[in-house]
Amino acid sequence: MKVDPSIFKAYDIRGVVGKTIDETLAEHLGRAFGSEAIAAGERAVAVGRDGRLSGPGLVAALVRGLASTGLDVVDLGAVTTPMLYYVAATRGQHGCHSGIQVTGSHNPKDYNGFKMVLAGKAIYGDAIQGLRQRIEREDYVRRPGRSAPMDIVPEYTARITGDCKLARKMKIVVDSGNGIPGASAPAILRGLGCEVIELYSEVDGDFPNHHPDPSKPENPPT
After folding, report:
1. Which residue has the higher pLDDT, 100 or 213?
2. 122 has a pLDDT exceeding 60
3. What confidence tens digit (pLDDT) does each residue in 164-205 have?
4. 201 is a catalytic site residue
5. pTM for the structure as a whole
6. What do you get for the CA distance between the two ends of the chain, in Å?
7. Which of 16, 221, 209, 215 is nearest to 109 (CA)?
8. What does the DSSP 8-state code read for residue 179?
9. How far is CA 143 from the centre of its chain?
10. Pairing verdict, β 146-149 and 121-122
11. How many Å separate Cα 106 from the centre of its chain?
């Protein structure tokens, strides 16, 4: 399969949906990553996504590809990237040390991409290029697998609110920018005892209020 080499970055795979990223690529990535996971002795992989409009279709294709290698795929649905990492880190409890988050991060709404953990370690550099090469060769393990959903939000919330204690009460303004943190961050902060004022907590992949990159001064709340 031909792919655009420019989407294979140092720490993730990222591009413009419909141009350099599409569902065909997502399925082939699932096959390539799944083949690497099988070679590493993995039996399961978790998949999550942010709130971008292209996310559901990319995840469906990715899950098909992963399952075609014989893996058990744990579909977390719409979650933050740390939730995906949490599942991959709590190994024995969930039975999987690997995961892929479908996320465009802070990029404009027409972008999407994939952040990956394999056998408990982040995929970057040469390992990402290895996935590209496997896709180009279409060198895949082919076995029947399966997928099932998991709601990790209650457990993740309980873990944070159980581990962390505030030294004093705080009043916090949270601008989620219509990104996926809006679905969980305000509730977690309230669970810690904070008074929370919410801005743009409704998840909306069109980002109608401001660009999703919070590091740039030109993206203030409107």
Report:
1. 100
2. yes
3. 999 999 999 999 999 999 999 999 999 999 999 999 999 999
4. no
5. 0.94
6. 44
7. 16
8. S
9. 24
10. unpaired
11. 13
Please list the residue range(s) of the chain that carry CATH number 3.40.120.10.
5-151, 164-222
What whole-number distance in Å separates Cα of residue 42 and Cα of residue 71? Answer: 8
Residue 77, SS3 per DSSP: strand
Angle at 57 between CA 52 and CA 61, to 5 degrees: 130
Beta strand extents in the chain (DSSP E only): 13-16, 44-49, 72-78, 98-102, 111-118, 121-122, 146-149, 171-175, 195-199
**DSSP designation for 177:** T
CA-based nearest residue to 30, from 175, 181, 103, 138: 138
Query: CA-CA distance, 189 to 207, in Å (whole number)?
Result: 23
Confidence band (pLDDT; 50, 70, 90) for 220?
Answer: low
Which residue is catalytic, options 6, 35, 68, 105? 105
Q: What's the mean pLDDT in 102-106?
A: 95
Q: Do the beta carbons of residue 45 and residue 54 sit within 8 Å? A: no
CATH class given for the domain over 5-151: alpha beta
Question: Which residue bears the tokens 């896709």?
Answer: 135
Q: Please name the residue that has the structure tokens 């204690």.
A: 165
* CATH no. for 164-222: 3.40.120.10
The candidate with the shortest Cα–Cα distance to 205, out of 111, 113, 109, 112, is 109
Q: Report d(CA 198, CA 176) in Å as an integer.
A: 8
Helix (H) or strand (E) holding 159: helix 153-163
**Nearest alpha-carbon partner for 52 in 97, 106, 88, 125:** 106
